[in-house]
Amino acid sequence: MRVLADENFDNNILVGLRRALPNIDVIRVQDTEIFHASDPAVLEWAAREGRIVLTHDIQTMAGFAVNRVKAVLPMPGVIEVAQDYPIGRAIEELSIIIGAGSPDDFESQVKFVPMF
Fold first, then answer.
1. How far apart are CA 102 and CA 71, in angstroms?
2. Is the distance from CB of 42 to CB of 32 less than 8 angstroms?
3. Are 63 and 57 in contact (CB under 8 A)?
C-alpha cells in the first residue's frame, strides 16, 4: 500500500505503523516537494503518485477530497485520524484498515479513525 502522511500527522503513529506493517510504502509530506502545500495540492500530488493520504485535518481535508470526487478527479483515498485518539489504538486500527485492504478499497473514499 502506498501512503502519504500529511505534514501534521503524528510521527509516533507512523513509527508504529511501520513496525506493524513492514511492507508499507509511506512517505511524509515534509519529505517531498509539496511541503507546506495546500490541502488541494496535497490531494493532487497524492493522486498523481497513487498514495492514500493520512491526516489529522478533519476540518478541511475531507471536504477537499469530496470536491475532487464530485469533479470526477482521481482521489486514491483519505484516512482521517482524530487528533486526540490514543496513539496505540490508532496504530492498531490503521494496521487493520490498511493491512487488510487494497488500494481499490480506498479509491474515492474518506475513512475515519475511530470509525464513527
1. 23
2. no
3. no
